[in-house]
Amino acid sequence: MVPNPMTVSRRLMVCAVTAAAIFAQAAAATAREAPGSFADLAEKLLPAVVNISTTQTIKNPERIPEMPQFPPGSPFEDFFKEFMERQARPDAAPKRATSLGSGFVIDAAGYVVTNNHVIADADEITVTLHDDTTHKATLIGRDSKTDLAVLKIDPGKKTLTAVPFGNSDQSRIGDWVLAIGNPFGLGGTVTAGIVSARARDINAGPYDDFIQTDASINRGNSGGPLFNSAGEVVGINTAIFSPSGGSIGIGFAIPSTLAKPVIDDLKQFGRTRRGWLGVRIQSLDPELAESMGLTESKGALVASVNAGGPAAKANLKPGDVILKFDGRDITEMRKLPRIVAETAIGKKAPVEIWRDGKRVIVDVAVGELPEEPEEVASKSPEKPQTQAQGQVIAGTGLTVSALNPALRERFGLEEDTAGLVVTEVKDGPAAEKGMKPGDVIIEAGNKPVRNPADLTKAVEAAKASSQKFLLLRVENPQALRYVALPLSDGKKK
Fold first, then answer.
1. Is 51 within any annotated ligand binding site?
2. CATH class name, domain 391-486
3. Is 171 marked as binding a ligand?
4. Would the CA dihedral through 215, 188, 228, 165 be positive or negative?
5. Catalytic residue IDs
């Protein structure tokens, strides 16, 4: 018997609806549901979170602070004068300042993690456990670049509760997180929220990769843990964004994958041992990428190479663009320092670079990042300004001159500096790229320039080949960098 077409159609519709319902139910079953309560998790984790207080001795100022202005003859004038003189007396007793923060136990032997800024410059560090017992803490090690510190207390016969680290790379935007800490000195306070964003750069340091959360974080939460729903530490609460100083739902935590290797080094060596490549890098903008023949502005552009460093030994050169390091894509410049820092010292890592219009792979033996020498602030005396001298490079807004003793003195340039010095920048392509008088153009189009004719020739050659940008290598006291100089009448490709 031939089935009724209408009956078949209705059956197919029912089957489709049933399949859709089953699929929706399965999807709902696999989705993470909001917990009915965090009480069990909080009860388990609270004993591992500690309050940290520090004291610091502040010496009296050597000069009398400026006194408020009062009308002549005011009775307050003598009162404030006497008060401020007493405060500035050399024999007056030093003052002691206190600050509060948070931390958490990572080892039952008494190791505690917190932020470096919580204990910076402290004379004494006190750790208060969840049961209100206090212990004097010893600083084991600190790292200002990641804002982490490891402390040690002697728990005696007390059994400490320690918490494990989780894998922050597995945390997804929208996952539930729990923050526990000591906001405003109130002690064990629990707040909940979600992961709001990943890989935030807030210009706090060279390895910024913060987790952003809307869990309430306030002053005093610094150094406290950010837990996932399994009770693992996925972040260390470090900073907030707040115009008012209070929580507005934008907090930042150091991810555990960045923190754990640093903490392990601090425990073992008392300092951080980081991988080192020995290059100064800059980001690629679309103009720089195009001038180098790249279709995407991804990677880290090598601006200079440290003599005798790992990169120099592997024959990396200024102008190379690092696309991959040890098999990991460098999608943006700021990722490279962190990836190198996490690489084992001594490891031979393959580095994929873009050089002369093609991909090249070199092997680099990763070195150890040397301790940075203490910076000595030196201010050069102001040089008298003279009228611009040199040759105008048409279409660029630049006036340049070959280096001579007078120009070296005027701009504070070293004797071994070689290139063309910029003496004036007018409105135009160079000004738009941030070039200034005193900049030294070392190369143009990957060729050395030593006099204005060299630069003019490079500009004309670039225009003749229909290039829209001329690649310049520029040096000043602050940095060595590449600049893609727009050519105003360059022909479109």
1. no
2. mainly beta
3. no
4. positive
5. 117, 147, 222
CB atoms within 10 A of CB 451: 16
193-211: burial string, b at 16+ Cβ within 10 Å, e else: bbbbeeebeeebbebbbbb
Q: Is 220 annotated as a binding residue?
A: yes
The answer to whether the beta carbons of residues 490 and 398 sit under 8 Å apart is no
In angstroms, rounded to a whole number, what is the distance separating the alpha carbons of residues 406 and 414?
12
**Closest to 336 (Cα-Cα) out of 346, 345, 324, 348:** 324
The predicted model scores a pTM of 0.67
* Cβ-count burial 344-382 (b if 16+ within 10 Å, e if not): eeeeebebbbbeeeeeeebebebbebeeeeeeeeeeeee
Pick the CATH number of 46-65+79-152 from 3.40.309.10, 2.60.40.10, 2.40.10.120, 3.10.20.310: 2.40.10.120
- Local structure of 421: helix, strand or coil: strand
Domain map (residue ranges) of the chain: 46-65+79-152, 168-269, 275-368, 391-486
Q: In a 3-state reduction of DSSP, which class is residue 47? A: helix
Low-confidence ranges of the chain (pLDDT < 70): 1-34, 58-97, 244-245, 372-389, 488-493
Residue 395: partners with Cβ closer than 8 Å, 6 or more residues away? 428, 429, 459, 487, 488, 489
The span from the CA of 271 to the CA of 146, in Å, is: 12
Q: How many CA atoms lie within 13 A of 262 on its CB side?
A: 24
Yes or no: say if 151 and 112 are a contact pair by the CB < 8 Å rule: yes
Residue 175 main-chain phi, psi, to 5 deg? -70, 145
Which region holds residue 52: left if phi is over 0, alpha if psi is between -120 and 50, else beta? beta
pLDDT tens across 48-105, in order?
A: 999 999 888 766 555 555 555 555 555 555 555 665 666 556 555 566 667 789 999 9
